[in-house]
Amino acid sequence: MRGARWIGAACLCALAASCSRDGNAEAARDGAAPAIEQRAGAGETRLDPDSPQLQRIKVAAVETARVPLEEVTAPGRIQAIPTRVSRIAVPVPGRIGRIMVGLGDAVREGQPLFTLDSPEVTTLMAAYRQAEARAGQAKAELAKAEADLARVRELFEHRAIAQKEVIGAEAALAQAQAEAAQAAAAIQESLGRLDILGLKPGGYQQEITVRAPVSGKVLEISLASGEFRNDTSAPLMTIADLSSVYVAADVPESMIRLITVGERIDVRLAAFPGEEFSARVARIADAVSPETRTIQVIAELANPRGRLRPNMFGEIRHEETFETVPVVPREAVVQREGRTSVWREKAPGHFEAVDVKPGRPREGLVPVLAGIQAGDRLVVDGAMLLEGSN
Fold first, then answer.
1. Are 225 and 97 in contact (CB under 8 A)?
2. What pLDDT sits at residue 29?
3. pLDDT at position 218 over 90
4. What's residue 389's pLDDT?
5. DSSP codes of every residue in 94-123
6. How many CB atoms lie within 10 A of CB 122?
7. Is the predicted pLDDT of residue 13 greater than 50, yes or no?
8. What is the pLDDT of residues 265-286, one digit of tens each?
9. Which domains does the chain have, with CATH numbers?
10. φ/ψ bin of 9: left (φ > 0), alpha (ψ from -120 to 50), beta (otherwise)
11. Is the pLDDT of residue 153 over 60?
């Protein structure tokens, strides 16, 4: 009885196999072949020439490009150059008069900023008048001393006086000359003080006009018309020349070896997506930040149109160690069980997965450091279709 059941089962299996072969043969006659035939070898896939998937797959030969193997990137921030920033205070105590510029205005060197009514004007004018009076007196005394010396010398030549009279007259002339020189110096000093304040000698009722020491933009204003200011160290206005600016970035200490002073770096700013600016490294800090383990790098870049403003954020980028390697589109690279792979065409419709060592992607291309070579034909579009069939 057990043998009869075994014979019956065998017959049933043979009948099913016969039906399957007949069905496949009939399908082949009708032209309905299977779309994908996967080979037993892992990582390889064959597609029938008439497969719709094959029509959707794009294959191209691998090209090469010169790409950087090492690259530094770090967040950066635009800063005004400290030596081109002027903080303006009142030169002398006084009352603020007219304010002639506003926040954000572009000013030229020497342009009036505001006026100041100060009691120092009277003091300086009085000092100048006194210096002039002393100079006039010294000039008169010098003329008298010169005349006295001439008279004494004439008398001495005629043996009318002793030689000591001549010596005394010469000493008096020397003293008069010294006093005249001191008086002239006092006048020059008074004129220098008046010139610093932009005042003309002679007029007591004059306003002091404070002018821009540099060309640039007004970044800060903290004064109002009519208020009295006596602190000559407190800045009332800040003007910065932004024709050139700094970009400061904190570079990881492990990458600082790739940057040197004088090198060019690329700068990208959030305010101007898609644009790239060129800067020159001006300074590298001498110490490492203990909190972030970074080193500050400061680069200078031109800003002729004034578009770059202090505190704009962005990124610096610097490339090193260039090499010519194969490059592939991002779409050609797939992740397979923790590995990075591409699909290489062995023959039409026959593909194999190849593990590669990718570099840093750039502008839609991925440099491949190992695994493929130039001329290999890779799937550059539709790789996921093969990934799903493998």
1. yes
2. 41
3. yes
4. 59
5. EEEEEE---TT-EE-TT-EEEEEE-THHHH
6. 12
7. no
8. 999 999 999 899 999 999 999 9
9. 36-69+323-389 (2.40.420.20), 84-237 (2.40.50.100)
10. alpha
11. yes
What pLDDT is attached to residue 42?
54
In our burial notation (b when 16+ CB lie closer than 10 A, e otherwise), range 364-382 reads ebbbbeebbeeebbbbbeb
Rounded Cα gap, residues 351 and 192, in angstroms: 88
Are the C-beta atoms of 279 and 317 separated by less than 8 Å?
Answer: no
Q: Which two tokens stand for residue 64?
A: 């090469």
Q: Using the structure block, give the residue that is written with the tokens 């220098």.
A: 192
For residues 335 and 326, give the distance between their C-alpha atoms in angstroms, rounded to a whole number. 18
Across the range 144-172, mean pLDDT stands at 88
Q: Between β-strands 228-229 and 94-99, what pairing exists: parallel, antiparallel or unpaired?
A: antiparallel
The confidence score (pLDDT) of residue 310 equals 93
Is the CB of residue 265 less than 8 Å from the CB of residue 279? yes
- What's CA 194's distance to the chain center, in Å? 41
Residue 282: name the closest of 304, 259, 303 by CA: 259
Rounded to 5°, angle at Cα 363 from 65 and 346: 55
Confidence of residue 25 (pLDDT cuts 50, 70, 90): very low
- Tracing tokens 């991002």 back to the chain, one arrives at 330
Long-range contacts of the stretch 201-208 (C-beta < 8 A, 24+) = 201/125, 201/128, 202/125, 203/125, 204/121, 204/122, 204/125, 205/121, 206/121, 207/97, 207/115, 207/116, 207/117, 208/91, 208/92, 208/94, 208/115, 208/116, 208/117, 208/118, 208/121
- 345, β-bridge pairs: 351
Task: Count CB atoms within 10 A of the CB of residue 328.
Answer: 22
Amino acid code (one letter) for 24: N
- Least confident range from 35-39, 148-152, 384-388: namely 35-39
